[in-house]
């Protein structure tokens, strides 16, 4: 029922050029042109052997990744419009500590901000959350963090608020109110939004990461702050909506993940 799919490197060995899996990199190193590879790639396998994650398919678009090493924290991750976490899933897993984190990844191929659930897994947001709750309660995790990027950002906040997660994190999130979607009557948006001022949200720390020089990110962040004034906003100094790629290029992505998934509280001055 399980298939090994991704090799994860220890966090200290992951650099700017880690978009390939270690197996792919080792093949490149055998090629006659390996001397022309970036230095960061050529040294990825030197520190220690990779550790293998296993993937368990809970649905066509729902994958559970675990190394079966007794991880104490579950990250429930909601993909964006490109069906990834701003970075490839393999890239994300390579930067995790597999003895500390298991990862559940959901993809909304309908591109409806998970408002209609996940195709083949749940037909609504509520049904999806109910299934996620059952999954979490059946396992002895000490912490649960919901995390989403772009289209999956605010669904991660909704899921975290509903599940009572230890932390809910949005990266480049947006409300599902685009004019094109509003004109599609078959894709009607639910009247009630879990991100609202009419309920108490103080018990779930909410973190919203956004590009400091991206107009759309700023607009969405302003609206979120008006509704969830106690949420923590983290601005990243870039115009790019893909702030994670920006951090990766600067060599700061590992430190970012350590902050938002770590035990310490996240403040607006963390990054």
Topology readout:
Blueprint lengths: L1 E7 L13 H9 L8 H4 L8 E9 L2 E5 L6 E6 L10 H6 L6 E6 L18 H13 L5 E7 L3 H11 L3 E5 L7 H4 L23 E6 L3 H13 L4 E5 L6 H8 L2 H9 L10
Parallel strand pairs: 4-5, 4-6, 6-7, 7-8, 8-9
Antiparallel strand pairs: 1-2, 2-3, 3-5
Structure description:
The protein is an alpha/beta fold. It has a single domain, classed as Rossmann fold, CATH 3.40.50. The chain is 28% helix and 21% strand. It is built from nine helices and nine strands. Strands 1-2-3-5-4-6-7-8-9 form a nine-stranded mixed sheet. The longest helix is centred in the middle third of the chain and has 13 residues, at 125-137. The protein is globular. Residues 11-19 and 36-46 have low confidence and may be disordered.
Specify the overall morphology. Answer: globular
- By DSSP (H or I, 4+ residues per run), the number of helices equals 9
Strand content: 15-25%
Q: Unreliable stretches, pLDDT < 50, 5 or more residues? A: 11-19, 36-46
Nutshell version of this structure?
This protein is α/β, with parallel strands linked by helices and 271 residues long. The chain is 28% helix and 21% strand. 39% of the residues are buried.
């Amino acid at each position: 029922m399980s298939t090994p799919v991704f090799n994860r490197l220890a966090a200290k060995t992951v650099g700017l050029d880690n978009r390939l899996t270690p197996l792919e990199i080792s093949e490149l190193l055998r090629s006659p042109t390996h001397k022309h590879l970036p230095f960061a790639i050529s040294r990825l396998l030197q520190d220690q052997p990779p550790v293998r994650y296993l993937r368990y398919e809970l649905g066509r678009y729902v994958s559970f990744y675990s190394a079966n090493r007794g991880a104490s924290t579950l990250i429930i991750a909601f993909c964006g419009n490109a069906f990834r976490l701003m970075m490839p899933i393999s890239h994300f897993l390579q930067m995790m500590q597999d003895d500390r984190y298991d990862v559940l990844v959901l993809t909304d191929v309908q591109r409806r901000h998970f408002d209609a659930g996940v195709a083949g897994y749940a037909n609504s947001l509520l049904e999806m959350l109910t299934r996620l709750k059952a999954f979490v309660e059946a396992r002895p995790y000490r912490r649960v963090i919901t995390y989403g990027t772009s289209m999956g950002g605010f669904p991660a906040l909704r899921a975290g608020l509903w599940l009572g997660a230890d932390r809910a994190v949005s990266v480049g999130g947006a409300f599902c109110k685009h004019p094109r979607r509003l004109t599609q009557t078959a894709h009607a948006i639910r009247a009630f939004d879990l991100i609202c001022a009419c309920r108490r949200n103080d018990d779930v720390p909410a973190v919203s990461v956004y590009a400091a020089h991206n107009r759309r990110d700023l607009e969405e962040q302003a609206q979120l702050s008006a509704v969830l004034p106690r949420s923590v906003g983290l601005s990243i100094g870039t115009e790019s909506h893909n702030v994670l790629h920006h951090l990766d290029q600067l060599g700061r992505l590992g430190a970012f993940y350590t902050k938002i998934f770590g035990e310490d509280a996240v403040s607006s001055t963390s990054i």
